[in-house]
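#struct-help
A.M.: can someone run this one for me? Single chain, 180 residues.
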Amino acid sequence: MAKSLLLQSRLWHRKIASVLFVFFLFISITAIMLAWKAVFTNVIFDNKKITGDTNFQKWLPLDSLELIAVNSINEKTNNKFKHAESIQLKPAKGYINFTFKNNLNIQVDGATGNTIHIEQKNGSLIQDIHDGAIVDGWVTNKWGLSKKIYSTIMGLALLLLTISGFWMWYKPKQIKQSKK
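D.P.: on it. Structure tokens below:
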């Protein structure tokens, strides 16, 4: 019985690993790339002399700051953006981060509107490949169903490989112990 379970374990372990080998390869490579994602960020403009004003009462209105950010990023990157995709307030740091298409980000001082930093972050593309969200973009699935299915399959496969791998390591040791 124990040997039969061990043989079944080896069979399933081999089949799962063989079928999902390419996906595990992508996950491992993109995980390393995510750990080092700063390497994949292109700094376009950086003014280390400017620090944001943390006094929230001195900040300009949000629509004015967005207009300043749009004009500044269009000037520095030769784009024609009209609005930011998302806005992230950082009152403790004194700036607002505006995100545009093509992973472009601009940090603007909340009180003066001066540009602090502009960069293009490519980590989100790597993240989308890593977790399968890139497929949702291809099939225009707004619920993230492809990502959920992919993550579930890969998570269960990794769990099964871990359990069967442990069993294949542990069981022969147990058999040797019982023979002594």
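A.M.: thanks! The two ends are 20 Å apart (CA to CA).
D.P.: also worth noting: The longest strand covers residues 115-121.
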